[in-house]
């Protein structure tokens, strides 16, 4: 058994002729905040999709607390403690904040519909627990004022916070955050940074994040894993990775290929890469 909370061992994913993720190994220990960085197309989202069970690996292994997830059906990754947010909001826009958070909770509840009929008492207890947990998360994320608002009417920053809440409602051991601050203003970004640190400190949840915002990466990460063309460039403490020649080259190469700077490159540049 490995001592790591999450461990990816030589993970590869191909799409036809494209190797989106190529022999990547990484780990996250309890209480750690680890970031995955890399220019557009580096394989970050694919790596997240593999880690959260959205798609299977072509080869390699993913372990959580030493348990190999290769035989675990995708929808059960969540019951093994892997929670995530998505790059494009994946909330139920017509539902309220509370309803969206309850959906997250239900993803990990044990009671099936048949169980609910046969064991009404247990189902009811779980439902009460779910509502209590959702209320705790609402308080934690300071979204009491919008708890009964329809999600589609909320600002983008608020919706992102609800998505964070829905992922927390699954009671993850590790939370995968896919570009959580993309499209946010500075104030919203600072709020999210604070929540990420609080999630680790107060809830004891480890975090793996994909992030283009280099200020955020440098501020909150314990370790950074840099990818390019699906392959690990380097891994280490934020300042080591930022100044690593291969990382600088990858970002400059991406900028040159694009004929300027945007997205990852601009963010990386502004972060002093
Ligand atoms: N479903 C798919 N089918 C075919 N190719 C894919 C698929 N998903 C990703 N790819 C390819 O895999 C490579 C890695 O893509 P991925 O989206 O993982 O990169 P990324 O680092 O997340 O990029 P970005 O920063 O733009 O989100 C790209 O070349 C992409 O075109």
From TrEMBL:
<keyword id="KW-0547">Nucleotide-binding</keyword>
<protein>
    <submittedName>
        <fullName>ABC transporter ATP-binding protein</fullName>
    </submittedName>
</protein>
<dbReference type="InterPro" id="IPR032823">
    <property type="entry name" value="BCA_ABC_TP_C"/>
</dbReference>
<dbReference type="GO" id="GO:0005524">
    <property type="term" value="F:ATP binding"/>
</dbReference>
<dbReference type="InterPro" id="IPR017871">
    <property type="entry name" value="ABC_transporter-like_CS"/>
</dbReference>
<keyword id="KW-0813">Transport</keyword>
<dbReference type="Pfam" id="PF00005">
    <property type="entry name" value="ABC_tran"/>
</dbReference>
<dbReference type="GO" id="GO:0016887">
    <property type="term" value="F:ATP hydrolysis activity"/>
</dbReference>
<dbReference type="InterPro" id="IPR027417">
    <property type="entry name" value="P-loop_NTPase"/>
</dbReference>
<dbReference type="InterPro" id="IPR051120">
    <property type="entry name" value="ABC_AA/LPS_Transport"/>
</dbReference>
<dbReference type="InterPro" id="IPR003593">
    <property type="entry name" value="AAA+_ATPase"/>
</dbReference>
<dbReference type="Pfam" id="PF12399">
    <property type="entry name" value="BCA_ABC_TP_C"/>
</dbReference>
<feature type="domain" description="ABC transporter">
    <location>
        <begin position="6"/>
        <end position="254"/>
    </location>
</feature>
<keyword id="KW-0067">ATP-binding</keyword>
<dbReference type="InterPro" id="IPR003439">
    <property type="entry name" value="ABC_transporter-like_ATP-bd"/>
</dbReference>
<dbReference type="GO" id="GO:0005886">
    <property type="term" value="C:plasma membrane"/>
</dbReference>
């Amino acid at each position: 058994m490995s001592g790591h909370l999450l461990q990816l061992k030589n993970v590869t994913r191909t799409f036809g002729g494209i190797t989106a993720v190529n022999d990547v190994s990484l780990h996250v220990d309890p209480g750690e905040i680890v970031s995955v960085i890399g220019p557009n197309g580096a394989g970050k989202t694919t790596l997240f999709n593999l880690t959260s069970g959205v798609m299977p690996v072509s080869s390699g292994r993913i372990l959580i607390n030493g348990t190999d997830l290769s035989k675990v059906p995708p929808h059960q990754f969540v019951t093994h403690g892997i929670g995530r947010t998505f790059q494009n909001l994946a909330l139920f826009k017509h539902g309220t904040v509370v309803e969206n958070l309850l959906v997250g909770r239900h993803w990990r509840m044990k009671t099936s519909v048949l169980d609910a009929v046969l064991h009404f008492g247990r189902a009811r207890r779980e439902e009460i627990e779910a509502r209590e947990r959702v209320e705790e998360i609402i308080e934690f994320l300071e979204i009491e004022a919008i708890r009964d608002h329809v999600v589609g009417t909320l600002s983008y920053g608020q919706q992102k916070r609800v998505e964070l809440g829905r992922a927390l409602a699954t009671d993850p051991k590790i939370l995968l955050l896919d570009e959580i601050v993309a499209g946010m203003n500075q104030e919203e970004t600072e709020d999210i940074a604070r929540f990420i640190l609080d999630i680790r400190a107060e809830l004891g949840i480890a975090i793996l994040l994909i992030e283009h915002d280099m200020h955020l990466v440098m501020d909150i990460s314990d370790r950074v894993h840099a990818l390019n063309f699906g392959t690990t460039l380097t891994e280490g403490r934020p300042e080591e990775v930022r100044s690593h020649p291969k990382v600088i080259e990858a970002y400059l190469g991406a900028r040159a290929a694009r004929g300027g700077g945007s997205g990852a490159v601009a963010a990386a540049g502004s972060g002093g890469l």
